[in-house]
Specification:
Elements (H helix, E strand, L loop, with lengths): L1 E5 L6 H12 L4 E4 L4 H5 L1 H10 L4 E4 L15 H18 L3 E5 L13 H11 L2 E4 L2 H9 L7 E3 L15 H8 L6 E6 L8 H12 L7 E7 L4 H13 L3 E5 L4 H9 L3 E3 L9 H8 L4 E4 L12 E4 L6 H11 L4 H13 L3 H17 L7
Parallel strand pairs: 1-2, 1-3, 3-4, 4-5, 5-6, 7-8, 7-10, 8-9, 10-11, 11-12
Helix pairs in contact: 1-14, 3-4, 4-5, 8-12, 11-13
């Protein structure tokens, strides 16, 4: 079996998935196709060459067929829609079996002039859909997409990817955090849908009270949204309680942020699957996050999962974690237990089975 994987990603997710598959099935071939400008321009030709080389399964992860806003092309979203439809059509026209792993039912920021159509057409064209939770199936159904070929396979943990080379004291010293301070961490790419502004507002209210003078908020991650970046930077500049580290975090520094912190807060406004939450659980962090999307499936004891529709719910969730020291070790243990349930060996085995059945023409059903 030869599988073409698109697009190639810097996220460890891909190799965590495909490495055990390659090890178990050395006779099969799994090859990435990068979403480079050249491949995007000549996508039908690029996959036609691979088809002639014997590739028969196309494993799609993200719809990176769109023009980036940085190019400033007039009618960019409509052009992106047409190009996306051409690319999806060429996959089917060339006889590939399409498997779509639905990381996002709809993109967080619009990519084309009609992303809903793209979702529906991809689901219809696919021979199988891999989803990370039952909630994703419900989301697809809400968008009018065909879910009859969906198979539930969870997102795995990040064990072994980010080395822990510092003690808690050393990690805090490097970040300028005092030993007695209680630290809440937001870690990951900074985008509007992730609720960072909500976190800043909730935490700022708490930090103004004497009871929370020994707390810190650490925000670490790259921000491509200029207006959001300015809001975060300006708020952090005005508060001695907020530490903002903008930019991509080097792999060797990832563990430092988690080991220096007490709580991970990820107050998403919308989410299908969150690698950020699974990363935090891998480090055994108590979680503060809303009951949305696949997050609903996280064990309740892993932190404080709040109802985002309730007034001041995020602020109250932070208060609870700041004031219940005795509960944090139990939350940490439950969080790490959740990560333990997401071992890659089983996930890789199930994924390979879907790819193999797809190639053989078998139908799959939600499980």
């Amino acid at each position: 079996m030869r599988v073409l994987i698109y697009p190639k990603s810097i996220n460890p997710y891909h190799e965590l998935l495909y490495s055990p598959i390659r090890a178990a099935h050395p006779a099969d071939k799994f090859t990435y196709l990068a979403a480079s400008p050249r491949n995007l321009l000549f996508f039908p030709l690029a996959i036609a060459v691979k088809r002639l080389q014997g590739y028969r399964v196309f494993h799609l992860h993200w719809h990176t067929f769109y023009l980036d806003a940085k190019y400033g092309v007039p009618g960019r979203k409509f052009i992106s829609l047409i190009n996306t439809l051409i690319c999806l059509g060429s996959i089917k026209l060339l006889g590939y079996k399409l498997v779509w792993t639905v990381h996002n039912v709809l993109p967080h920021e619009p990519q084309t002039s009609n992303d809903r159509v793209v979702t529906r057409l991809t689901a219809r064209a696919a021979s199988a859909l891999i989803v990370h939770s039952a909630h994703t199936i419900a989301e697809l159904h809400e968008q009018g997409a065909d879910t009859s070929k969906a198979v539930i396979i969870p997102h795995g943990n990040y064990d072994g990817i980010y080395p822990r080379s510092l003690s808690r004291a050393q990690a805090r010293a490097k970040l300028g955090i005092k030993p007695h301070e209680k630290v809440v961490l937001f870690f990951g790419n900074l985008r509007p849908h992730k609720g960072v502004e909500d976190l800043l507002a909730a935490y700022t209210k708490l930090a103004a009270q004497d009871a929370y003078k020994n707390t810190r908020l650490v925000i670490a991650g790259a921000c491509r949204d200029a207006s959001l970046g300015k809001i975060i930077a300006d708020t952090a500049r005005k508060s001695k309680h907020i530490l903002y580290r903008e930019g991509n975090v080097a792999d060797e520094d990832v563990a430092m942020y988690f080991d220096a912190s007490d709580i991970a807060c990820l107050p998403f406004q919308s989410v299908t699957t969150s690698g950020s939450i699974i990363l935090a659980a891998t480090f055994g962090m108590p979680l503060v996050t809303p009951r949305l999307g696949a997050i609903k499936e996280i064990p309740a004891g892993a932190g404080v999962l709040y109802d985002p529709s309730e007034k001041d719910a995020l602020q109250r969730a932070l208060q609870k974690t700041f004031t219940t020291d005795a509960s944090l070790p139990k939350m940490a243990k439950a969080s790490r237990g959740y990560a333990d349930s997401l071992a890659w060996e089983n996930i890789a085995r199930k994924t390979y089975a879907v790819l193999r059945k797809t190639l053989a023409g078998s139908t799959t059903a939600a499980s």
